[in-house]
Amino acid sequence: MFRYHSLVENKSKLFAIIIFFMVAVLAVPLVLPQIHHKLTLFNVLIHLTAMSVAIFLSTVAIIAYSRLRTQRLLFTTIAFSVFAVSQSFSLIAAEWPDAYYAIVAVELGRLLILATLGIFALSVFRSD
Asked: Per-residue pLDDT tens for 38-52?
């Protein structure tokens, strides 16, 4: 019988499930077409790894926020989630650099990284 509580408590299992899910969903459409383009493949793998880790950290932060309900954890959760979204825009720009929307994706990714830093600053300077 599957127990949600045991999955939430065991961070290594949660990390493995999230990484497995990200590889299973995104590896075929994003990694395989770039298999012969080494630099593009490396760039895509970096953004895919960063997005996977950001989703894991967002999940852990959501679990922590649901238990403690502090403003600091809320801002941290939002920051990790915004960083995951920014990495998805960076992944789009890395995968299709010649597309007409790649420039927009790059700039949106950079703006969201700046927003992530601002939200983390709010979290650090927040006194709960």
From this structure: 888 888 889 999 999
Phi and psi torsions of 100, nearest 5° = -70, -25
**How many of the other CB atoms lie within 10 Å of CB of 46?**
14
Positions of the chain with pLDDT under 50? 1
User: CB–CB of 75/126 below 8 Å?
Assistant: yes
Q: Distance between CA 106 and CA 47 in Å, rounded?
A: 12
The alpha-carbon radius of gyration of the chain (Å, integer) is: 17
What tokens were used for 87? 């990495």
* Cα distances (Å, whole numbers) of residue 99 to 37, 53, 67, 69, 85: 17, 27, 43, 42, 19
For the chain, counts of helices (H) and of strands (E): 5, 0
Whole-prediction pTM:
0.86
Question: In 3D, which of 45, 57, 40, 58 has the Cα closest to residue 97?
Answer: 40
**Which tokens hold the place of 95?**
């995968």
